[in-house]
């Protein structure tokens, strides 16, 4: 055995990089969870914050720490683990250095951003819409985070290209392929936010220019903002496609279908940002219509994923003797948290995705836009389907990369944690969806609008949100406890649960790895969907908006 390599075959040196990312992610989850608890109690009128702490400050901290920091660190850690394991058994020295450099820059960005938010200089929420203006250092912090993630992504490309060069004519492992697509998509998508931050927000926040073109900045944000949600989802899909079949003792339904669904996500997840701007003036209905059509195209890979997962579960259950229409369901390993947590994520993704289709439909968007319904939608998608999947991954990943084993007690705690999360989310997201339909706005602190009867009728739902939020906070505490317990678990051998495709599956076509075609098509779709509207916004940008600092 090589020095530095554990009996599991996972390289200890690489393991440290993975652990650093995963731990940072969970520290962010804890801090973001505290902010979340407080804001749900404030919003229901249950508590008042001390004068020194602003509601929007907490809301910004919650959004940034949960949606951007927790997810990005977790994703980089998880993907590096899989790259190390599937592309040669260890990271190339240069890739390891890139991983640490990315980690350092993302860490610096996170620290600076958190200080700016908590010192009250950046209460601009996680979407940082202009003309609300934060300290320039908040935008610099965001730039550091993005550049750090680029360097980490380039490390993944480097390891992949090296593997392809040394394995001529071979199809890459599915995990590695998916990691490359995820970071390709991220690379293309973050160009929008990089342009917004570097060209617009930083010069404006330093006072070098006085006004800002709000329409342009929001459009550049959503050019990035929608693929951002797929950047969260794709690693969860990687677990569902590649890891879950192994954990349930089955096989991947089709390697080719899994790759095709990722290619479709690359093509269609970017040119759809206008579905977040359907209610905004200044974009012609034609371009909104076009991007809504593309939005419905991006639903297809998720439907393919659902089909593939059902097939995996049913075929595996039947092979184990499951009889009748649903007898195969009983054969699934319900007592294994590595399966149970992601499975609950999948199950909840069915209503969560349906909610997305509601949002994308122009007329229905007019009902739900800017209401708590949307907040309910993203707590089901990212905060449940994605988060529960990431929790499920943590239960095998941390023991694996530290040379330990998951004990039955931790497994049981994990099951309890998953159930607590689902109950909390049922109350919180359920109430958000309902009260959103009654018109309750998102992004507001507690107010009864001078005892307006309509606003008073929202209160019981806001209390339900607070109850859900409190239960979820217990869930946050428990997962963070579990993470630290996993780091002290007994030493032993764990495996990287990587599924294999079914023998009967068709061979994977090599053209799925012709990156030139897919990048070219992706760019072409973006050019078609964005060039004219962006040109229009730049040429007819008007005098620009003055600055607002409302807190
Ligand atoms: Fe969304 C707003 C449309 C998916 C996140 N979304 C948001 C925001 C966030 C977000 C954060 O069109 C708020 C942004 C803000 O701050 O303003 N969303 C969609 C559509 C989809 C979608 C069409 N969203 C997501 C995902 C997210 C996410 C995924 C995070 C991870 N969303 C919108 C729109 C808005 C929006 C508008 C703007 C609203 C507004 O007006 O502001 C689709 O991708 C959804 C497709 C999904 C499916 C479900 C497939 C189901 C699967 C599970 C299978 C289950 C199994 C279990 C196998 C069609 C894959 C087996 C079960 C057994 C019983 C065996």
Automatic annotation (TrEMBL):
A molecular function (GO) term: heme binding
Lipid bilayer topology: Multi-pass membrane protein
Pfam families: COX1
Cytochrome oxidase subunit I profile domain ranges (all copies): 16-487
Chief localization: membrane
Keyword Electron transport: yes
Transmembrane segments: 17-38, 58-82, 94-117, 137-162, 174-202, 222-244, 256-274, 286-313, 339-358, 378-398, 419-438, 458-484, 515-535
Name listed for the protein in its UniProt record: Cytochrome C
């Amino acid at each position: 055995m090589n020095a530095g390599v554990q009996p599991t075959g996972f390289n200890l040196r690489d393991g440290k990089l993975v652990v650093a990312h995963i731990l940072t992610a969970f520290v962010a989850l804890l801090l973001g969870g505290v902010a979340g608890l407080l804001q749900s109690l404030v919003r229901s009128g249950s508590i008042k914050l001390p004068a020194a702490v602003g509601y929007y400050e907490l809301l910004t901290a919650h959004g940034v720490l949960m949606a951007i920091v927790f997810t990005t660190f977790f994703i980089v850690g998880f993907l590096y683990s899989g790259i190390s394991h599937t592309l040669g058994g260890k990271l190339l020295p240069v890739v390891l250095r890139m991983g640490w450099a990315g980690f350092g820059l993302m860490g610096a960005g996170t620290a600076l951003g958190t200080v700016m938010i908590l010192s009250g200089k950046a209460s601009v929420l996680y979407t940082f819409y202009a003309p609300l203006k934060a300290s320039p250092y908040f935008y610099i912090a965001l730039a550091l985070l993005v550049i750090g993630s680029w360097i980490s992504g380039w490390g993944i490309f480097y390891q992949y290209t090296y593997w392809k060069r040394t394995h001529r004519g071979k199809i890459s492992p599915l995990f590695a392929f998916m990691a490359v697509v995820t970071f390709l998509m991220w690379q293309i998508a973050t160009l929008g936010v990089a342009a917004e931050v570097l060209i617009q927000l930083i010069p404006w926040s330093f006072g070098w220019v006085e006004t800002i073109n709000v329409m342009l900045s929001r459009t550049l944000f959503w050019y990035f903002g929608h693929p951002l949600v797929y950047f969260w989802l794709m690693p969860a899909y990687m677990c569902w496609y590649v890891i879950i079949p192994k954990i349930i003792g089955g096989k991947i339904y089709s390697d080719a279908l899994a790759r095709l669904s990722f290619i479709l996500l690359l093509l269609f997840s970017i040119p759809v940002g206008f579905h977040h701007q359907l209610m905004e003036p200044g974009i012609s209905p034609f371009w909104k219509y076009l991007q809504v059509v593309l939005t419905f195209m991006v639903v297809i890979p998720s439907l393919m994923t659902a089909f593939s997962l059902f097939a995996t579960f049913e075929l595996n259950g039947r092979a184990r003797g499951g009889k009748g229409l649903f007898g195969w369901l009983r054969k699934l390993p319900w007592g294994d948290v590595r399966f149970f947590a992601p499975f609950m994520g999948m199950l909840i993704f069915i209503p969560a995705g349906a909610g997305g289709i509601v949002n994308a439909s122009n007329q229905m968007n007019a009902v739900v836009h800017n209401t708590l319904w949307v907040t309910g939608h993203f707590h089901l998608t990212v905060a449940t389907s994605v988060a529960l999947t990431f929790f499920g991954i943590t239960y095998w990943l941390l023991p694996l990369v530290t040379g330990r084993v998951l004990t039955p007690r931790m497994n049981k705690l994990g099951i309890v944690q998953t159930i607590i999360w689902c109950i909390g989310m049922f109350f919180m997201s359920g109430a958000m969806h309902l009260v959103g339909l009654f018109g309750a706005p998102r992004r507001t602190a507690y107010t009864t609008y001078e005892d307006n009867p309509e606003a008073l009728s929202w209160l019981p739902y806001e209390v339900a949100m607070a109850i859900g939020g409190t239960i979820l906070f217990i869930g946050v505490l428990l997962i963070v406890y579990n993470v630290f317990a996993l780091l002290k678990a007994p030493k032993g051998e764990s495996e990287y649960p990587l599924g294999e495709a079914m023998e009967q599956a068709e061979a994977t076509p090599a053209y799925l790895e012709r990156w030139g075609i897919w990048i070219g098509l992706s760019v072409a779709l973006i050019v078609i969907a964005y060039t004219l509207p962006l040109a229009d916004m730049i040429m007819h940008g008007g005098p620009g908006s003055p600055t607002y600092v409302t807190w």
